[in-house]
TrEMBL record:
Record-level GO cellular component terms: cytosol
Signal peptide range in chain numbering: none
Organism placement in taxonomy: Bacteria, Pseudomonadati, Pseudomonadota, Gammaproteobacteria, Oceanospirillales
Name this polypeptide is given: Transcriptional regulator
Gene3D superfamilies documented for this protein: Jelly Rolls, lambda repressor-like DNA-binding domains
């Protein structure tokens, strides 16, 4: 729920309009507050003066509470209005996944200008794509077109120096230990300016490594 809709809800409350705002999922939020405090419907009924049947109907979205009912809820439960209007928190579940990549055991993906080593490559449906890259290119002319892919990218220089070319900015020198975060749908290209091939660590969101 956006701040704008919260303000809209507050205006409706102030005016005492009926029924109370439906999109707030107020019943679900009330039940969440009740369970978090280990209250029964009878407990809430005694605190607010509202019948258990009324509370049950509110929690199951069978009725939309009026302004006077909302006042009884906030007063009886000793909560303020924003607490009641806050969208219910969704339970989070973790699958507990992990994927170890030993040194030099990543999935190799060589290109004419880079040699990528994909890390954590055994996990499917990742939100991030981490990879270590050996930068072999020595000139921007070695690229026939910009490298670009959906999402965002974080890059850190692990060894050597590189020149980062980007579509909308002047070329940028990055030395060992430097890092940069950028939109990766913007054209970009890396060139090693060291005597040896430079090595960088990159983490991309979405899209494929180019």
């Amino acid at each position: 729920m956006t701040a704008t809709s919260e303000e809209h809800a507050a205006l409706r409350i102030a005016s005492g309009s009926k029924p109370f705002v439906e999109p707030l999922r107020l019943g679900e939020r009330l039940k969440q507050i009740r369970l978090a405090n280990q209250w029964t419907l009878e407990d809430v009924s005694q605190r607010t003066g509202l019948a258990r049947s009324t509370l049950s109907k509110i929690e199951n979205d069978q009725v939309s509470p009026s302004f006077s009912v909302v006042q009884k809820l906030t007063t009886g439960l000793n909560i303020d209005l924003p607490q009641l209007l806050t969208p219910p928190k969704r339970e989070r579940y973790t699958m507990g996944r992990r994927d170890l990549t030993r040194k030099g055991k990543g999935q190799l993906h060589p290109t004419p200008t880079y040699e990528h080593e994909l890390l954590g490559h055994q996990l499917a449906q990742k939100r991030m794509i981490p990879f270590k890259t050996i930068v072999r290119a020595r000139s921007f002319d070695e690229y026939h077109q910009w490298v670009r892919h959906d999402g965002e990218e974080f890059l850190m220089v692990l060894h050597g120096d590189v020149m980062l070319y980007t579509e909308f900015y002047a070329p940028l020198v990055l030395e060992e230990g430097d890092s940069i975060y950028f939109d990766s749908d913007m054209g970009h290209a890396l060139v090693s300016t060291s005597q040896d091939d430079a090595i960088v660590l990159s983490v991309c969101t979405r899209g494929d490594v180019a």
